[in-house]
C-alpha cells in the first residue's frame, strides 16, 4: 500500500525529534515515507517533492524545521491537502522563531502547527486526519488514548499509595 | 446532510473573527454548525458538546478562544478526530497568551493551531482535512487557491503598469 | 480530619516541583491529598475529581501544570472555592507558556497564580486562605515568616563579619 | 460590620480598572474599603496601612499596580493573610512588566496573581477566599457563576437561531 | 539600462512601506523593478521570478513580507547574489514574527535583514552594495548621508535657539 | 553658572518625551543644556560633543534614543562621569528594543537606565547625582518628593470621601 | 572614613554576582558596606536600613535582586540620593522579570538600572556618581578605563599576529 | 592584494563564533582582515578604524557584538559601504538584546543583519556583495551552494536507505 503521510525535515539534526512522528505512525499502523529535504539548500528538489506529493498518494505532509522555518509553509503553498508543521527548538530563542515562522501563515495557506518539538503530536494529528475516513484507524487512535489514560491512572494510584517522598525516591 | 464541522468560540466577542471560518466553509460548500460555548463558564454543557460531537457526525472541530484559551485543548482531550485551534488576539499581550495556551499541548492531545486571528485558515484547514477523502471538495479548494493566485497576479500587473505612486493613490 | 487542600498535577514529572507545596503544608500542619490527574488524558476522571471536591471537604485546590496548562483553569471552572495555579517551567519557553495559560483567565473564573515553579508559595497561599478562619494556623504562618527573617538575619550577620571573600569560600 | 477586604492601588489612574473589584464585591455583598496608596511615593503611609490591616479586620488585600509594581508584593511581605495582585496594563509593554513584578515572588511571600487588568477576578477571588468559611457567601458566588452560564447560553441560542450574519449586525 | 534591483513584496498591503525603498533608489538614481509576488499564493510564478532574476540582470533583490515571512528567505535560496529582507510590522505581534522569520536563516542562505518596516534602509543598503563597484553611486550615497547630517544640525540649532517649549509649539 | 547636565536626544521626534527631563530640572533649579545630536547621522559632531563635555563642565549626561539606541552607550564610552539613558518607546516593539540597546552594556561602561519614556526620572536622577555634593539641591529634591506624597494623599482622601463612582465621574 | 556606598542584596545566593560591585569599589578605593537584606522577608529591618542610610553617610545605594525584584525600587522610595539596581539573572525567565521589576519605575522614584547581572557596572556607576565631586576618584576611574582599553589592544595585537586559529587554540 | 573585508568583534570571547566568517571567506578565496575592536572601551581607536576603512580598501565590514551591541551600527554610521552585523548569543537573553541592538537601526544607517551567531552567513553575504562585480567569485559561491545541496542529498539518500532507527544509531 502506498504511504499516506510524507514526513520531511530541513536537516538531519532534526531527526531525533522528528522520529517521534514516525514512531507514533508505526504504532498506529499508518504508512509513511520520511526524508530530509531543505527548501533553502535544494529548492528545486523541494519543489518537485511538493508538486508530486499528491500524485504519489500522500494525503498529509508533516514538515519539521527550526529558526526561519519555511519548509512547512512552502509545502502548504504547493501541496493542496493538510500540512502539519513542527517547530524545532532552537538554541538562542528556544524555538519561538521556529513557531512564529510556521504558525503565522497568511490567509489561504494554513499550516496545522503543533507544539515546539511536538513531533509525536504531529504524527498523531496526521493519523486523526486520516481517521476521518478510516474507522479502523479511529479505533486504534481511541485505544492509544485509552492507554495514555491508563498510564496516568497507574501513576496516580502509585503516588496515592506510596506518598510523594517514596515515589520521588523511585523516580531517581 | 449533517454538518461535518463544528465551530465553537468561548465568547460572542470572538464572532467577528470566527465568522471568517464560516465564510470560507460557505464558499467551499462545507456544512458546519456554529455556536458559543465556554469551557470555563459552562463546563457541563461543554463536556456534553465535546462528548456527543462524534455521534452528531462532526469530523472536525474548530475552536477559537483568547487569553488562557482552554477550549481547543479541552475539545481535543475529548473529541477523537482533528481539533483546530484559533488563538484570538488580546489587548494586553497581542494574542501570544492565546497562542501559547493553544499550541503548546502535551504529547497525545494535538491541536492543529493556526495564526493569531487566523479563522479563515482554520476553516480552510478543516476543508482540506475533509478533502482527504472528498475529491470534489479538493477540486473546489484548488479552485479557491487559483483564485487567490489570480488576485495577486492582477495586483502585480496593475502595480507594474501604474507605478507605485499611482497605485497608492488608488488605494486610499 | 478530612484533608482541606487537594494538590493535583498534570504529570508525575511535575512532582519534584509540586512536592514543595506538600512540604510546606506538612510544616504548617495542614491536611492535604495529592495525586496526578490529567485534564487532557483523562477528562472524565478530572471532571469527577473537580465536581466532587467540594463534597469531599476540600476548601482549596492547588493545580500545577506546564505548557498549554489547562488543569488550574478547568479546576476553577468547576470547583467554587479558591484554585491556586502553579506554572511549571518548560524547556523551550522557560514556563512563559505555562504562566500565560494559567494567569490570563477570563472574567468570572479566577486562578490565584504564583511564580513559575512556585509550588512552595502555592502551599503557603493555601494555608493563608485557610488561616482567614483559623487563628491557630495563622500563628503557625507567622512563626514560619519569623523563621525566614531569622534565616536572612543570620546570613547578614555572617556576611558582615566574614566579608564577602570568606563568605563565598564557605558557600562552595 | 467591619470591611473584610482592603482594595488599594498605586495611582488613581488605575481606578477605572480597580473599580471592577469593588463592583463584584458589591454584587456579592462583601464589605470592602478602597483607597489610593503608593508604596513608592508614601512608603511610611503604606507601611502603616499594611501593618495595621490585620488589626482593622481585613482578611484579604487586593492590590493593583502597573510597571515595576511593588505594591502587591510589599503588602504580602507585611500582611499575614492572602494578598491578591492585579497587574495593570501598561502602554509600552502591555503589562508584562506589571505581571512579572507581581507574580514572580520569592519563596515565602506569595501573591495570588490574576490576569492583566483582571480586577473583577481579583474581587471574585477575594470573595471565594472568604467563602471558605462563609456558606452563605459561597451560595451567592454559585449563583453568580450560574448567571454567567445563563448569559453565554442565551448568546449561544441567539447565534444558533439568527445565524452569524444577523447576529453580527445586531452587535454593531 | 536594465534595472539592477528587484523589489518584491508578498501583498500590496505592504506597498505603503515598501515604496520607501523605491523612493530612496529614485533619489540615488538606481534603476529598479517593483512588483507584488507571493511565494505562498503563486509559488510557480515566484520560482520563475527568482530563477530568472540573475539572467534579467538583477544584482540585488529586496523582499518585504509580514508574519510567517518566507519571501526573502526563499529568494535567497534561489538567487545567488544578495537578498535584503524587510520585516513588515504585524498587528498582533508587532513584527517580531516577521523579523524572526526573515533573520534566523540557516547556514548557507543569508538574508541581509533590516529593521521592522525598514524599507528605506533596504533601498539604501541595496545602493551601498552596488556602490562597492560604482564610485559615482558611492558619491551620491555620501551626499545623501551629508544631507541627513545637515537636517539634524538644523534641528539642533533651532532647538538651542528657541528652547524646547517654543520648539514643541512649532511641532504641532 | 555653567550648566551641569547635558540633555541629548537622537531625533527631535523624541523631544515631547525628553522635555520632561528639562521640566523637572527647571523645577529643581538645576542648569542644563539640551540639544539634538545623532550618533548615527553625525558621528563626528557627536564625538566632539562627548569628548568636550567634561571640559564644558557637564557632570551628568542624559541621553534619550529609540530602536537600536546607541547614543547613551556611546556617550558613556567617552564621557567619564555618569550617563543616564532614556529608552524611547517604539511603534513596533514598544521600546523593548530601545531598552535592551541601552541597559545591556558590557562591563566597564555603565549606563544608568530608567524606564521606557522615563525622561522625568532621568532628570530627577541627574539631580540626585548632583545632590550627593549639594545639600541645598537635596533639600529641594526632598520637597519635591513630599509634594508627590501630598498629591497621592489628597487623591486618597477624595476617593475615600466620594466613593469610586463619584470619583470616576469627576475624572472624565 | 565612613562608607559612602551601601551594597545590599535580597539573598546570599546573589553574592557571587554582587561581589563584583565590591571588587571594583575596592579597586577604585571607594569605601562601602555590604549586607544581605530582604525587603520581603524582613520589611522592618529593610525600612530601618533605608531610612537611616542618609544619616549613616551613604551617598549611593546599590541593590541587587531577582524575580519580582522590589529591593531597588523600595530603597529608592525611601533613600533620597541615587539608588542603582542590579537585575539578577533568573532560571525561568533569564532575568527579564528582574529587569522589568527594577527599571520600569513610576515617575518620581528613579532607579539607575544596569544590565542583568551587571554588578561590576553598578559599582563603577556608584564610583562615577561620587567622582562628580571627587577629582581624585575621577582620575582613578579614567585610569581604570585606560586599562580596559589596553587589555583590548593587547588582544587585538595578538589576534592580528597569531591569526584566529592559533589564537583560539590558546584560548582553550 | 588588499583585503576587501574587515571583520571586527567587540571582544575576543566572540572569536569562536566570528571565526566562522573567516573560514567561509577562506574557502571562497576572499581576502579579509580580522581584529578585536571595542567601540565602548576604545572609541578613538574604533573611530580611526571606521574612518580609514574605505581608504584601506575595505568594501564590506562584518561586525559582531553581543548585548547592547553598538559596533555594527556605529561602523555603519561612519563607513559608507555595506556593514554586516552579527548578533552574538547572550547568556541571559539568548541574543535578543544583541539582535534588537543591531537590526533596529534608524533610517539612513542600514546594518545588514544576519541570524544570532550567524557569522558564517555574514561571511557568505560579504562574498555575495563582492560577487555582484566579480563573476569568478560568483561561480565559487554557486559551487559552494551546490556542495550544500549535495550534502543534504547524501543524507536524504542515507536516511531513506537505512531508516530512521539505524540512521540515528550512526549519529551517536
TrEMBL record, chains A, B, C, D, E, F, G, H:
Keyword Isomerase among record annotations: yes
Keyword terms, alphabetized: Isomerase, Purine biosynthesis
EC number: 5.4.99.18
Pfam families xrefs: AIRC
Domain PurE, chain residue ranges per copy: 3-152
HAMAP family linked: PurE_classI
Protein name listed in UniProt: N5-carboxyaminoimidazole ribonucleotide mutase
Gene name linked to the record: purE
Amino acid at each position: 500500500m502506498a504511504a499516506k503521510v510524507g514526513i520531511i525535515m530541513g536537516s538531519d539534526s532534526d531527526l531525533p525529534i522528528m522520529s517521534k512522528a514516525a514512531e507514533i505512525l508505526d504504532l498506529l499502523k499508518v504508512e509513511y515515507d520520511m526524508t530530509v529535504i531543505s527548501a533553502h539548500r535544494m529548492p528545486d528538489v523541494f519543489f518537485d517533492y511538493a508538486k508530486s506529493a499528491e500524485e504519489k498518494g500522500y494525503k498529509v505532509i508533516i514538515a519539521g524545521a527550526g529558526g526561519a522555518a519555511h519548509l512547512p509553509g512552502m509545502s502548504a503553498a504547493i501541496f493542496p491537502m493538510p500540512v502539519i508543521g513542527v517547530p524545532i527548538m532552537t538554541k538562542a530563542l528556544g524555538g519561538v522563531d521556529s513557531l512564529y515562522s510556521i504558525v503565522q501563515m497568511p490567509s489561504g495557506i494554513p499550516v496545522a502547527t503543533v507544539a515546539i518539538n511536538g513531533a509525536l503530536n504531529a504524527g498523531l494529528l496526521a493519523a486523526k486526519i486520516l481517521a476521518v475516513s478510516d474507522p479502523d484507524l479511529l479505533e486504534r487512535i481511541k485505544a492509544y488514548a485509552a492507554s495514555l489514560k491508563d498510564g496516568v491512572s497507574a501513576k496516580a494510584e502509585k503516588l496515592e499509595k506510596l506518598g510523594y517522598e517514596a515515589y520521588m525516591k523511585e523516580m531517581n
